[in-house]
Amino acid sequence: MDKKDIYEHLAKIYLDASSKKKKKNKRYHKFFRNSVLLVSALIFGISGFIYLSYRKNRPFASEIALVLLSDAAKINFHFDPAKKEIYSLDLNKQNLTRFNALGFSVKKVNYRDNISLRVEFINSFKEKSEVYFKDIPHKWQDYKINLSDFKSINNWSEMKTLCFIIEEWNTKEKKGVVYIDNVRLLR
Length: 187
Hints:
Elements: H1 3-56, E1 65-69, E2 73-78, E3 84-94, E4 101-108, E5 117-123, E6 128-133, E7 141-146, E8 159-167, E9 175-186
Antiparallel strand pairs: 1-9, 2-9, 3-8, 4-7, 4-9, 5-6, 5-8
């Protein structure tokens, strides 16, 4: 064998060896890419399932709403001289004719207390109507009430206030705390 034959033989061995490495690397990259795609698909599928199950447990998640109160409000009542405690929201003569329901979340602090909550709308024409919610729970509970249940209001075009009222004769204890959150008008 002369030098040229040895050189070609070595080049052939080297080139064949490097092409085998490339094939191994390609197989590894293909396996790695497929693994990443599979894991991404699993994560996306699981997160989608969790989101959909979470959304099913939230009854108002798919409705269009005008949020009136996003942070929790605290009604701290103490019926020594007072006979009722009121938390009111100024509606600034808003037109609520396109809305169908009022939604809110509420809870009491003292689980032994028996509290009823009065929800009241007042419009600019001095029409006033209320609805009572009995046995406010100790844990957060969502409530939804149709605006048609506020029977004494005929004109929803200029609404003045929305009030949440706790009255002495609608509680078992003389003092306590009630929280109201996520007050919204629903279409």
